Amino acid sequence: MNTTQTIRDEILKLKKEHDVCILAHAYQSQDIWEVADYVGDSYGLSLQAAKTGQQTVLLCGVRFMAETVKILSPEKKVLLSHPQAGCPMAQQISVAELAALKETYPDYTVAAYINTTSELKTLCDVCVTSSSAVKIIQNIENDHILFIPDCNLGGWIARQVPEKIIRPVAGGCPAHAAMHADQVRQMKSLFPEAKLLVHPECKAEVTELADYVGSTTGIMEYAKNSSAKSFIIGTENSIVEHLQFACPDKRFYPLSKDCICSNMKLTTLMDVWHCLHGTGGEEITLSEQVMKQARRCIDTMLTLG
Ligand code: 13P
Ligand code: SF4
């Protein structure tokens, strides 16, 4: 009978035989972390994608992440771990809507959260991720910025960079935007000593109460390096599990039991197994033109970040 151990061993053997690099986003499950060559936040994954040596990259995460890998390494075969794994935020604004906004605000630089489709990126000037956003926005010469599509992240950046006029447009992450200040007060009353660490995709009423606001990797580093012993985590709940693994002497509690990204949760260890057997996943294909035009704003992100 197959066990996690036998499947894991087969994956490790196959990825070596077929020269495959497995990149996993931090929201993937612990068993996937353990077979990955690199685990990180969106910015770390982009950096890694640009320098990996293998000819095939398997991205365990959501579609825009696999598209970013393909754009940075067009000569490579790039697989998305599960064909249905998309980020709902990536499509909250259409190409036509963005084109219309650019006509309304011709003097604005368009900054896109990396959680956008490749087609949208072709119309943008620069991409940002949660860990690189503040630095990149500070480094843009223009002080008028149109920010798509996460209004919570856009608002948070605007509060960190008050010298710029930042106009956030469109939407937000359904999982993060559902958390609110009452949950913070309730959790703080249960665990008064605990530090509150949250992702900038949360509403302002949540980030304003936090001890630390940052990317998935940033939250993990803060918790590992902190002398505090307990933490309330305001991001996808897989991070609670990973932190508990990494720091058994500390305690971690989810700010909300419901902060679960159903798209990130789609990929299982058996999906990875199927990808390596050629019976699963989806190979990412993008037109030359989309890759060329979308690459400009990703390259600008890597330069300014
Ligand atoms: P990070 O860039 O912090 O990994 O976030 C990606 C994401 O989708 C958060 O919801
Ligand atoms: Fe998209 Fe939110 Fe899931 Fe991140 S957590 S991938 S922003 S839906």
From TrEMBL:
EC number: 2.5.1.72
Keyword Transport: no
An annotated GO BP: 'de novo' NAD+ biosynthetic process from L-aspartate
Catalytically driven reaction(s): iminosuccinate + dihydroxyacetone phosphate = quinolinate + phosphate + 2 H2O + H(+)
GO cellular component, one term: cytosol
Coiled-coil intervals: none
Keyword tags: 4Fe-4S, Iron, Iron-sulfur, Metal-binding, Pyridine nucleotide biosynthesis, Transferase
Listed cofactors: [4Fe-4S] cluster
Pathway annotation: Cofactor biosynthesis; NAD(+) biosynthesis; quinolinate from iminoaspartate: step 1/1
Keyword Transcription: no
InterPro entries hit by this protein: NadA, NadA_sf
Molecular function in Gene Ontology: 4 iron, 4 sulfur cluster binding; metal ion binding; quinolinate synthetase A activity
Primary role: Catalyzes the condensation of iminoaspartate with dihydroxyacetone phosphate to form quinolinate.
PANTHER family from the UniProt entry: QUINOLINATE SYNTHASE, CHLOROPLASTIC (PTHR30573:SF0), QUINOLINATE SYNTHETASE A (PTHR30573)
Family annotation (NCBIfam families): nadA (TIGR00550), PRK09375.1-2 (NF006878)
Protein known as: Quinolinate synthase
